[in-house]
Amino acid sequence: KTAQSVFCALHAIIHAKRNQSNSKQDLTLTSCRTVCGRQEGADTRTLEPITKVSKAYGVSTRTLRYYEQLGLIQSSKLPNYAYRAYDEEALARLRQVLVLRKLRIPLKQIGLILKTRDGQLAITVVEENIAALQTERQALATIEGVLRSFVIELEKMLPAPLSPKVFEQQHVAELVEALSIKTLSSKEDVN
Q1: DSSP H helix total and E strand total for the chain
Q2: Which of 33, 83, 123, 161 could serve as 37's disulfide partner, Cβ 3.0–4.6 Å?
Q3: Tell me: the pLDDT tens digits for 106-122?
Q4: What are the residues facing 49 on neighbouring strands?
């Protein structure tokens, strides 16, 4: 009973200090029920505030909140603390999300992978994205070829000033016709 009283007193001091300071340093959440409720073992988790996580992972706080809204990560709410904070489990999921995003996996597919933890689904998603990358590579090669041909045509017209009608000429139109609408989809369409 004496040890429990000491833990409860320490817990009260930690709560009091946390309530007094407005610092955004690492927070330790200790379950009062676990420590003071006469149960064995303390459930202690280190929580990182959203601003620290944002800086550490190079992700905006808005993006973190969006990931949370999509169910990709989950923050922990602390009493008397107005900001979101993340435990190690949430940070591990965030790292998974960031790796998959860097591999250009869409958020919806990331959510399915993390939710189901189905290895076959993950393989299917990655294979679909490989196919999409191959299609994009072909489209970029086509665009590159058209642009190189366009440069050659423009060089033939030098030193004359560039006319707006240059884009209406037959040989230029033939170059651009090689591009499909899908080929023309750009990053602006994705974002």
Answers
A1: 10, 3
A2: 33
A3: 999 999 999 988 889 99
A4: 85
